[in-house]
């Protein structure tokens, strides 16, 4: 069962459902999906993924659900949060390849940024991506992320070296798409 915590145009973010761990195992062990992630070299079993999903579901991590089909397509969340300085790392993946390059990542990321800036009160939200993941970099730029730095040659895959790119966005660079609209419609 999914709950519409944050609703976008194409998808909504729901608290994670622990019972979805087998779907995550399938996606994470698909090298085409995993190659774009920072943990592609890890072997993930059902038991390990269930533990991870149980752990993630207790923090600020969300399932990404297609609005029309009410179907799980990936997840997004904040694996690292520095509450003192207002800085958080966001992580996103669309595991269902049928949803790649169709705007779902952008939609989910906008919702997560809205939550991060307007509910968690972050000042800076950043992410990490490998230089070979051009579709992800394009998605992040469209949402407003800028390159903040690189770790040159940080990833060796298929005999080639690639940079790890750090991208970020500041709270005043992001226009709320959801939460400010809800608050402005209410008389609190």
From TrEMBL:
Task: Using the record, list the residue span of the signal peptide; answer none if the entry has no such feature.
Answer: none
Any idea where the N-acetyltransferase domain is? 11-172
**Molecular function terms, GO-annotated:** acyltransferase activity, transferring groups other than amino-acyl groups
Record key words, sorted: Transferase
PROSITE patterns from the entry?
GNAT (PS51186)
| TM ranges | none
| PANTHER family linked to this entry | GNAT-FAMILY ACETYLTRANSFERASE, SPERMIDINE N(1)-ACETYLTRANSFERASE
Which protein are we looking at?
A: GCN5-related N-acetyltransferase
Organism source for this protein?
Thermoanaerobacterium xylanolyticum (strain ATCC 49914 / DSM 7097 / LX-11)
């Amino acid at each position: 069962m999914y709950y519409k915590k944050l609703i976008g145009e194409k998808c909504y973010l729901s608290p994670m459902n622990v019972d979805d761990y087998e779907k995550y195992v399938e996606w994470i062990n698909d090298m085409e999906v995993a190659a774009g992630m920072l943990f592609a070299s890890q072997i993930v079993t059902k038991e390990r993924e269930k533990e991870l999903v149980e752990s993630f579901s207790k923090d600020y991590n969300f399932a990404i659900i297609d609005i029309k089909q009410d179907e799980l397509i990936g997840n997004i969340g904040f694996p690292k949060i520095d509450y003192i300085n207002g800085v958080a790392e966001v992580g996103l993946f669309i595991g269902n390849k049928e949803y790649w390059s169709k705007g779902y990542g952008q939609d989910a990321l906008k919702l997560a940024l809205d939550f991060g800036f307007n509910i968690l009160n972050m000042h800076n939200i950043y992410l990490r991506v490998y230089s070979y993941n051009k579709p992800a970099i394009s998605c992040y730029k469209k949402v407003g992320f800028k390159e903040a730095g690189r770790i040159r040659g940080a990833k060796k895959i298929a005999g080639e070296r690639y940079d790890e790119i750090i991208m970020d966005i500041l709270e005043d660079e992001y226009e709320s798409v959801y939460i400010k609209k809800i608050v402005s419609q209410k008389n609190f």
